TrEMBL record:
InterPro entries: CAT-like_dom_sf, Plant_Fungal_Acyltransferase. This is Shikimate O-hydroxycinnamoyltransferase-like. It comes from the Eukaryota. Belongs to the plant acyltransferase family. One of its GO terms (molecular function) is acyltransferase activity, transferring groups other than amino-acyl groups. It comes from Sesamum indicum.
């Protein structure tokens, strides 16, 4: 298997868009208040950007291309009815509080039906970071016009010449984090059947992560910063500069992962260090990113890695596993570039492993209170987000399981997504060309030729 997967040449999938509409809940219940506003936690507030994903399916003779969109539309109407009614709403700014809320006005989710002139086999390896996949998970409905607010999520069914198809989903991160997106997709799949109940009833009480009154900040929080803005109307947007990027998927086989784990065990200091697939890959990604950042090496520059951490089991009492909002914070690891280059690999793995232990119940509440006061944003050179425990590829639809599920490349050069591979782990990296060239060289240099080839 190829060790480093560069972007393939096919970027235009020759898509024809056949339908582009808004889908509202199938019906309203007596308990559903159409004027209800959903409270958004301080964590929700800072995640106002879209996450597009693609889910490919082989042809199923029982579900031809004209049937799948009808089933998925029906399923979407059902899940929006009660438990996910907020996903059919729109953002509104509470002027008095300066906070985003979701207006549950049933304005609708986006729904797109399209077709491609290609077959699935023409696309090659789905793991490749294909820019063309952006056409399979559009983020806006261009036919709405400037006077109509865009939906917070868009679902797209694209059929291919072979009878296979792709379900693309573009969802604003404010709505769901990774764990709650997994539950949502499971629920959406059940509602595409004729007689299945929801897989999991979501917990929509986002007040569970509300700040304390008054706020009480007990710890320093260098993983966040307060934007230096003269006036902030509403929460700041966590985004990065848009520029020309190269995209590469680093496909680490089980042989490569075992090599990294072996290196991590050398000179290890802490017996509590968790030498997991994620920790060793994240440590290597951090090293390559830190040392590839500058055209001229600056040994004194401090590089900070942010590791996305699920809070559900860390709080007291724990959050329900079915909590549908964003229950994630970042754990940080910082070191100078000189140390990152000279330290043994085991030291970097130790730091990545130990950082999440800092995120306790008390620490999490302190972060939420800090955000209440400062309306801040994550502060780090690079963020790694693990999808290794998400089971998107295991979700059973009436037409079967997807043959591949994964993220779509975006303009985010500050985030690396780590997700399952067929035999190991994949890491999707997006960087400017010169930086990517140095990153790839550092990555290759870390392994013996017997593993790279």
């Amino acid at each position: 298997m190829a060790f480093i997967l560069p972007i393939p040449p096919m970027q235009d999938l020759k898509i024809t868009f056949q339908e582009s509409i808004l889908v509202s809940p199938s019906k309203q219940t007596d308990d559903d208040d159409p004027n209800k506003s959903i409270f958004l936690s301080n964590i929700d507030q800072i995640l106002n950007y879209n996450i597009p994903t693609v889910h490919f399916f082989k042809a199923n003779p029982d579900f031809p291309p004209q049937i799948v969109p009808k089933r998925l539309k029906m399923a979407l109407q059902r899940v929006l009815q009660v438990h996910y009614h907020f996903m059919a709403g729109r953002f509104k700014l509470n002027q008095q509080l300066g906070r985003l809320e979701i207006d549950c006005n049933s304005a609708g989710a986006g729904f797109v039906v399209a077709s491609s002139d290609y077959s699935l086999d023409d696309l090659g390896d789905f793991v490749y970071p294909n820019l063309g996949f952006r056409q399979l998970a559009v983020q806006t409905l261009d036919n709405l016009g400037p006077e109509v607010e865009q939906p917070l999520c868009v679902f797209q069914v694209t059929s291919f010449k072979c009878g296979g198809f792709c379900i693309g989903m573009s969802t604003n991160h404010v709505l769901l984090d990774g764990a709650s997106a997994q539950i949502f997709i499971e629920n959406l799949a059940t509602q595409a059947f004729d007689d299945k109940p929801l897989a999991v009833i979501p917990c929509n009480n986002r007040h569970l992560l509300a700040a304390r009154s008054p706020p009480h900040v007990e710890f320093p929080h260098p993983e966040f910063f307060k934007p230096d803005l003269p006036e902030v109307v509403g929460p700041p947007v966590f985004d990065c500069k848009r520029e020309e990027l190269d995209y590469t998927t680093f496909s680490l086989t089980s042989k490569a992962i075992n090599y990294l784990k072996g290196k991590a065990k050398e000179n290890i200091s802490y017996s509590t260090t968790k030498i997991t697939s994620f920790n060793v890959v994240a440590a290597l990604i951090w090293r390559c990113k830190a040392l590839s950042n500058d055209a001229e090496y600056n040994k004194d520059r401090v590089s900070t890695l942010l590791n996305v951490v699920d809070l559900r089991s860390r709080l007291n009492p724990p959050l329900p596993d079915s909590y549908s909002g964003n229950a994630v914070l970042v754990a940080y690891s910082s070191a100078t570039c000189e140390d990152i280059e000279k330290w043994p690999f085991s030291k970097l793995v130790e730091m990545v492993s130990e950082a999440p232990k800092r995120v306790s119940d008390e620490y999490s509440k302190s972060v939420i209170d800090w955000l209440e006061i400062n309306k801040g944003l994550p502060c780090g050179e690079y963020m790694v987000s693990s999808w290794l425990r998400l089971r998107f590829g295991e979700v059973v639809y009436p037409w079967g399981k997807p043959v591949y599920s994964g993220p779509v490349v975006s303009h985010r050069k500050d985030i690396c997504w780590i997700f399952p591979g067929v035999d190991g782990v994949n890491a999707l990296v997006s960087l400017p060309a010169k930086e990517m060239e140095r990153f790839v060289a550092l990555f290759r240099e870390f392994f013996p030729q017997s593993i790279i080839n």
